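Example record for the data management plan.
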Amino acid sequence: MSRKVFDMITSAGGIVVVIVLAVAGALLLVGHNYANTQVRDQLAQQQIYFPPKAAFAHPKAGTEITPSMIPTVSQYAGQQVLTGEQAKVYADNFIAVHLSEMPYHGVYAKISAAARANPANKALASLEQTSFQGTTLRAMLLEAYGFWKIGEIMLWGAIASFALAALMAVLVALGFWHASRTPAEVPLLARQPTSIAA
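Corresponding structural encoding:
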């Protein structure tokens, strides 16, 4: 096989790789857009808002705003929860804090067991319902965050695919350029003349 034929075959194979990478990048980009749209649409329907900015003026343990919320939750003060990152902050730094301040640290299984053991205790029944609602909302928000995170990974995968496709396209062009400059009679493993120093 001549060097020219080899260059042509490898360059043609490179075209296939470029196409595959470009298609993969496009599909990953579609996946990213779908994930972001779904998360935003679903969160928008829930109409969940962070507390207003004024609420963060006097944080105090046991109230709506605790000191632990200042570094994380306050950055979204007054905003509607619409992104995966906001959903994670609301779930982990707002709801989880309030759940942890409840009896039994807000763990639904423990509160439910106590409520079943004391069916006449209305305070436990109310606490069970509050824990269930908080735990359920937190789980749904973290699921939205997980879906959003997958979309972010798809975006980086799309960028990497497009970058590799561009690099491969340059290599393919160089391969065809080299093939056009190589005489047809040059063998693939041509020996280069070596000079022997006297």
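Summary line stored alongside the record: Residues 5 and 100 are 70 Å apart (CA to CA).
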